[in-house]
Specification:
Length: 346
């Protein structure tokens, strides 16, 4: 049975404050993927994710009022910038309905207890805890009380931080996924350490283990799938050149298609832990493998010696392991040099 990787397209705040952009990203995430060589139609992403902040519980007053002069700024102060990017509860509900209509799960990163107000409108399929909030134990307590499945990112965590978070959540439920993550945007290859996935699989085997990726390109999430990651999360955007701090490190439309094509093809490719010959290989095997053949003209009535033999393609005759069925046998019809010896000849 083909393994299935649960792939999350993280919109985050790459919608730049626009519901319409968020909906377009949902539609892109929901597109089936085409593999043209073999004519395959492969499954799209499984879910999209938005981020919800309560700006009354976000930053200190001085940080909210601090000037924000970045080329990615949507306001004069950091508070204005954050306000511009925030969709309200009704807008999140609108994107949720759009995602569900296209068959996608909808996941919310809730950054404060005040964000739980969205539950008046809808229930996300999963809640995500951002890496920065893994140590925000009051928030974890509030999220866990909802009994909604929780995904944890470990981008800023060691074992103690993760264990403390799990201790809080498991008081309420154990429907938990843990994503290896590195909170460097983008992540340098020397810091990725994909072997952490193996560590999590070994030490937290009762939970679903995955990988939240911030590297450039698609090779790292593919490697994570090959290592057994059951969830992949990747930032997505309409255009990597759009204004916004996450845009350049996200996958654009072509990148989304390539990643999903390769992940779904990889799932098929992993196969089973066994050595066997595929049915589709048989034709190539017959054409390319070697069979016992003559290295001289052999006349009717002659007895075949090992010195008369060589190995040539195609592979539809005797194998060398069957040479005892050939050596010492009398030829009943002439066989020319460099021809395969078949049962009809002896």
């Amino acid at each position: 049975m083909t393994e299935h990787t649960y792939v999350i397209g993280e919109i985050g705040q790459n919608h730049n404050g626009s519901v319409d952009i968020a909906k377009l990203l949902v539609e892109i995430a929901a597109r089936p993927v085409k593999e043209n060589l073999f004519g395959l139609t492969l499954k799209s992403m499984d879910a999209i994710k938005l981020t919800k902040r309560d700006l009354n519980q976000e930053l200190s007053a001085s940080q909210m009022a601090a000037p924000y002069n970045s080329p990615h700024s949507f306001g004069k102060t950091y508070g204005e910038h954050r306000t511009f990017l925030e969709l309200n509860d009704e807008q999140h509900f609108e994107v949720y309905k759009h995602a569900k209509s296209l068959g996608l799960d909808f996941i919310e990163t809730l950054c404060a207890t005040g964000c739980l107000s969205i539950l008046k409108y809808f229930t996300p399929d999963k809640l995500k805890v951002a890496s920065r909030d893994l140590t925000n134990l009051p928030l974890l307590h509030a999220l866990s009380e909802t009994k909604i499945p929780i995904i944890l990112s470990t981008g800023m965590a060691g074992k103690n931080e993760l264990d403390n978070a799990l201790e809080i959540i498991t008081k309420f439920h154990s429907n938990i996924s843990i994503l290896h993550c590195v909170s460097q945007y983008p992540t340098h290859p020397k810091n990725v350490n994909l072997n952490t996935i193996l560590y999590l699989q070994e030490h937290y085997s009762k939970y679903t283990i995955g990988y939240s990726d911030h590297t450039i390109g698609i090779s790292t999430p593919l490697a994570a799938v090959a290592m057994g990651a059951k969830i992949i999360e990747k930032h997505i955007t309409l255009d990597r050149k759009l204004k916004g701090t996450d845009q350049a490190g996200s996958l654009g439309i072509d990148g989304i298609n390539r990643m999903m094509r390769d992940i779904r093809a990889l799932e098929i490719s992993l196969g089973k832990k066994e050595l066997y010959i595929e049915n589709e290989v048989q034709a190539a095997r017959t054409k390319l493998e070697r069979s016992i053949a003559t290295n001289r003209n052999i006349k009717k009535g002659e007895v075949i010696k090992e010195s008369d033999l060589q190995m040539l393609s195609p592979g539809d005759g005797f194998k060398w392991s069957e040479k005892d069925l050939v050596i010492g046998k009398t030829v009943i019809t002439d066989i020319e040099k460099n021809e395969i010896i078949y049962k009809k000849h002896i």
